[in-house]
Records
---
Amino acid sequence: MNRAPESIPQALPHIEALAPYIPGQQPDGEGWVKLNTNENPYPPSPRIAEAIRAELSRLPLYPNPSSGTLREAIADFHGLENSQVLIGNGSDDVLNLLFRSFCDKGKSAGMLEVGYSLYSVLAGIQNTPLIKVACNREMVLDPKSLSACGASVFFLTSPNAPTGVSYSRQQIADILDHYEGLLVVDEAYAAFAQEDAVPLLGNYPNLVITRTFSKSYGLAGLRVGYALADPKVIQLLDRVRDSYNVNRLSQAGALAAFLDTEYYENVINRIEVTREVFREKLKELDWFTYPSQSNYLFTEPCQPGGRVGAEAARDLFEFLQDRKILVRYFAGSSLTESFLRISVGTDEQMDLLLAAIEQWMNRAQPK
Ligand SMILES: *Cc1c(COP(=O)(O)O)cnc(C)c1O
């Protein structure tokens, strides 16, 4: 029987109305300087390929359902029990499980006005009201307004995306001292930060920390992330996740990366050095840039004569794109629309970017 396409039944109303997550562009073809999705510009540790190759002959077998060996290695490293760790298919998987397990129509989610935009999509999928706590331009965190916001689960990105600003362990403890809900600290960029919230786990059973292999380990394509939390929280998330949520190759590859600490300390250090050098260059241009504890810089382009704002930021974004340099632009909020987020690449990539920025600055100069 032939049925007309219109005969597809209606989905749930909140799904029909859902605005999907918009990932950063992944261009086809060669020659792009890709500084738009905070990927790691350096190659993965050679041990990863070895580990994945060794795993290939075992592909007919289902993977370990709880990613056991990787879970143990991560628990050991953080000084935690296996029961306090959950491995996800990327940390986005873990965030999704948190929404599924703790949020619904009557149990709202919270985030800062400036934060990782996936949270609002996940709230939409789960049909959960989303409470946004206001930010000021200084991005000073107000623990009181956050703990009083009424959300059942609060998702705090620290270091923050897209600003790169990190919140201190003390500030997070200040929130937890007064917050009744579940506080999820999304530490996707913790490897580039001076401090993290892991030591607080022992004192606060309502704290969840999420991490990823996508940024500091340069394994965005492998899809591995994890949660650290109280065993009761982990048990709940374990019930909800796909039983084989992390495939064999990803488990093996992530474990090899995790154990190659020397290689990654070196990579992270190089990225931090490049970040600080580039931040200095932006300072010389007189652009306002947030201090970053991540692998990107959030900077406010300013042309000679002081032209600054959404129009200038979008103009530079397009100017760079025309020269095959991709950065990220966030429209729609007065706190982000005059800025560009630039991932820290190799020194060579940053030099290419800087040369293009200089062209743009000169172009704007009155003749
Ligand atoms: C990149 C990113 C993630 C997603 O990590 P995956 O492990 O690739 O899913 C989560 N949170 C923030 C803030 C990120 O920037």
Note: The mean pLDDT is 95.
---
Amino acid sequence: MSITPLMPVYPRCGVRPVRGEHCHLIDEDGTRYLDFASGIAVNLLGHSHEGLIGAIQKQAATLMHVSNLYGSPQGEKLAQELVDKTFADTVFFTNSGAEAVETAIKTARAYHQHQGDTTRYELITFANAFHGRTMATISASNQEKMHHGFSPLLAGFKYAEFDNLESAKALMGPHTAGFLVEPIQGEGGIRPASDEFMQGLRKLADENDLMLVLDEVQCGVARTGTLYAYEQYGIEPDILATAKGIGGGFPLGACLATEKAARGMTFGTHGSTYGGNPLAMAAGSAVMEAVANDEFLASVRDKGERLRSRLEQFIGNYPELFELVRGKGLMLGLKMKVESRPFFVHLRDNHQLLTVAAGDNTLRVLPPLVVGDAEIDEFFEKLSAGAASYEVPES
Ligand SMILES: *Cc1c(COP(=O)(O)O)cnc(C)c1O
């Protein structure tokens, strides 16, 4: 037998973390890594946050799971907090980002079909999007590498050019139910949509009674310096998917919606055994308590600006390697002039610096939001040493 016990769908590297301390990961043989990947924008409170650990420990010892057939004081508390701090009137909890996007897709379709309009089922999505790995969420992306071997795809998605309003407009028709978009593409290469684009989609949705669905699974939960990224675009969505950071490392996602958008989501239309269980709610509430306040959000914006300006200065020293810095808050990307993946491997293996490679030859810089000046200094030491010692591989 040659297949590994862990289904070999990930090209796993030699770093084998067994412990986390704030912004560092320590692997099996004791090597310390600076973690500017955060489990891909998940561990926003770092790896040993006392409040989060305490909340999970306490809840685990009290009540871990009950069925959604019972009332949920824990769920009501977190849902109320999200309702108070966002555009939303109602929340459905999931265990992952893909499930949150699935719920969002179902909500958008049901908005039309609940009224008896079965012709509007199509969502316009955008090139190089990433929405997850379920059948619906791979069908929502135009990336063929995620489709291969899994046909037939789910019907009902059309792909427009990202950040191109005319392209979205051109795909609108009698079957259009809405738009599904990441305000800042994550896997696609930390590419922020323009204000004009997001405001244009909002306007098209308003004029045509369509759902504007945002996938904020990666850019949401304080990552960009506001609780959700849409706040910076001067618009509100009808439906929003959130996950990754919201559990701070505990599996948790949610689909947020306005009352109007959720009109099709009535008794019996949707469900999840684990979704919103008391343990996940305790984790989510601890994260919200830490991040959903002006002081914390201002600190993310402040650190984001400092990190960004230092990155801009830094790339000036290596014009042959780096093209530009983009992103918002502490969701930053270095677009490279050479392939980003081998450089990311070099930083990891030779300089013990963890970042994430992304599309469009971009290196993702996603530190825990609790990152301090000392870790930012350490990051630049490692990055500078990494750039100075880098030999671009022959391709
Ligand atoms: C990670 C991600 C998802 C999928 O989340 P999972 O928890 O892996 O299912 C969906 N959308 C975006 C934008 C993501 O970054």
Note: The chain has two domains: 17-49+294-389, 51-291.
